[in-house]
Amino acid sequence: MKIAIIGLGLIGGSIARRLRGFHGGCTVAAYNRTEATLRLALQDGAIDEAYENAGDAMDGADLIILCLYPQLNIDMVRDNLSRIKAGAVITDVSGVKTFMVDELSKILPDTVDFVGAHPMAGREVGGYKSSTDTLFNNASFLITPTKNNKPESVALVRELAEYIGCKHVVTTTPEEHDEIIAYTSQLMHVVAVALCDNPMIERSTFFSAGSLRDCTRVAKINAEMWSELFVENKDALVKRISEMRGSLEKIENAVASGDRTTLEKIMTHATKQKLKWLTE
Fold it and tell me: 49, 128, 171, 280: most buried by Cβ count inside 10 Å?
């Protein structure tokens, strides 16, 4: 089996590092725009073949893993359709799924199967040099098949997820993925950015015991990637922001009116929800 990894960043590099022995021994080809990264991946033994042209990496591949930003992933497929063989399976690691499914369905022939995926793992630093062969250990891996996918294609992506170390492989729809990720991931980045957009942060250096640091951890953000993800999932994210605004207004009104009873009810409910759903 030949596997092509398109983009050797944190996720693509970490996948490559775990593929040795997959399907009894596969050939791992990779595309990356930076030659130095390709050389390093070859030296590490993470890949077998290195290409500065995505089409060359995709040529003859049985499984293609798209690890660039969503629109770049689509552009790479569109620009190299003639290099993708009939029967190939394509998957991705993008944080938006409806957008990917809709756009690729306009491009791909019936002979090529796209199965959307999203490994729930990452670090605050990116790039191949930050990749590790333990990144996916005990992580969740989301698969978003459609009615058009072949069962064997979905099974291959599930097998990949389990092989790289993911503990929970969850199958959902592209729409449900985007609705929930808008809350669990995108809204968290919105909140962190909003906190750092407040001028009070300039006076806060010695006035926080850790809460501000914890709440703003993900504000150290890849602005190019996250602005794209926000816009590509705008309908779901706008809903989540509106819901957040409603919660803040309830708290604001209770504070403004000095209503401790309501505040205690809100906080008690929040504590119960945290302990029920998010206990480590």
Answer: 128
Q: How far apart are CA 21 and CA 176, in angstroms?
A: 33
A 10 A CB-CB count for 42 gives 14
Per residue in 191-216, pLDDT tens?
A: 999 999 999 999 999 999 999 999 99
Q: How far apart are alpha carbons 16 and 19 in whole angstroms? A: 5
Contacts of 190 (CB under 8 A, 6+ apart): 230, 237, 240, 241, 244
Q: Are 213 and 236 in contact (CB under 8 A)?
A: no
Tokens of 102: 């809709």
Tens digits of per-residue pLDDT, 214-249?
Answer: 999 999 999 999 999 999 999 999 999 999 999 999
All structural domains of the chain: 2-172 (3.40.50.720), 176-277 (1.10.3660.10)
Of 87, 90, 86, the residue nearest 100 (C-alpha) = 90
Token pair belonging to 124: 């605050």
- The closest alpha carbon to 84, from 117, 61, 65, belongs to 61
Distance of CA 19 to the CA centre of its chain: 19
Per residue in 95-107, pLDDT tens?
999 999 999 999 9
